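Worked example 2:
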Amino acid sequence: MPHTSLDLTKTVAISSLGLYAGLLTTTTLVSTITPIDLLTSQVRHLACVIGCYESGLAALSTGAFALTYYLSPPKLRLPYLLYGVAVSPLTCGYMYVSSKLSHAWASKKEIKSNAENSDMSSPEVVEEPTSKVPFHHPPIDGSAEGAECPFGKKAHKNGASVKPNASCHKALNIQLWVSAAAALGIFVKIVHESRYEPTVLL
């Protein structure tokens, strides 16, 4: 395989990894300095778009590094190529798993707190017969057919469960900083090690 093809795939790999690390760092800074209310109301769509670009750059970087490693001669299959293959899947996987766990923990904690507050504020509500109505069942009072139970899915969706959670935001910022630091560190290491590869090619 000519060295020009390897140089091309390597350039694409390192460039896409640099863009991924830079975009991830920018997202981390924006998430850290932006209030949670503004982040969930005004910047939410932009964050989704940035997340799509980050995923695309991560996939491009991983594929380019894997192709460079596969096409390189055995003597040129250096460790930094494997670092480039692993960094994007590891950071994305860490973000996904840790985000799921933190959201699940925060939701469980919020439900428990709401249940305790409800028991302390109105303990007599348990004795009401309406508490035996199924969760999604509308009130049976002979009213219009379109009546919907206040405990139904729509009311729950528009209620406290949609409010931004400060603990989730704090956990997200920590996860972003860890991922950004890892991506930047690996990127700097790859750039440093790739500078000495032309002496090996000769």
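DSSP finds seven helices and no strands in the chain. The first helix runs from residue 3 to 33.
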